Amino acid sequence: MKKLFILLLPAMLGGCSYYHTVYNSVMDKMNTDTLEYQCDEQPLSVTHNSNRDEVSFLYNDKELRLKQGISASGARYSDGIYVFWSKGDTATVWRQDSIVLHNCQLQNGES
Asked: Which of 50, 54, 56, 60 is the most exposed place for a label (fewest CB within 10 A)?
C-alpha cells in the first residue's frame, strides 16, 4: 500500500497544481474589465485587472502593463515610463513628462 501511495503522490500533487492554475485563471477573468476610451488622437482599449491592481493596453504596437500606484485623486498606473491616469469617465496617458493621449472619454458608460 505504501508503494502505491508513493507512486500516486506526484499525480495527486500535480492535480493540486493544475487546480490552482485554473482557479487563478478563472479569478483573473472574473476580475477583469475592458474599458473603451475615445481619445483626441485615437481610440484606446484598456484592460483593468483588479486582482493584480494593473491595467494593460496597446500603444504604438507595444503592449503596456502598468501597476497601480499612489494617486491623490482618481486612479494612477505606471511602469516608470508610461502613466495611465483616470478619474471618473476621463483618462490621460503620459510618456515620461509628455501627454501622449489627451481627453480620453469612456465610451461604454463604466467608470
From this structure: 60
Q: What digits encode the pLDDT tens for the residues 66-86?
A: 999 998 899 999 999 999 999
DSSP state string for 14-46: HHHHHHHHHHHHHHHHHTEEEEEEE-SSSEEEE
Side chain identity at residue 93, one-letter code: V
User: What phi and psi values does residue 18 have, to the nearest 5 degrees?
Assistant: -60, -45
- Using an 8 Å Cβ cutoff, are 56 and 63 in contact? yes
Give the separation between CA 6 and CA 10, rounded to whole angstroms.
8
Cα–Cα distance measured from residue 54 to residue 82, given in angstroms and rounded to the nearest whole number: 13
pTM of the complete model: 0.70
Backbone φ and ψ for 80, nearest 5 degrees, come out as 95, -20
C-alpha cell recorded at residue 99? 501627454
**Triad 71, 74, 79: Cα angle to 5°:** 55
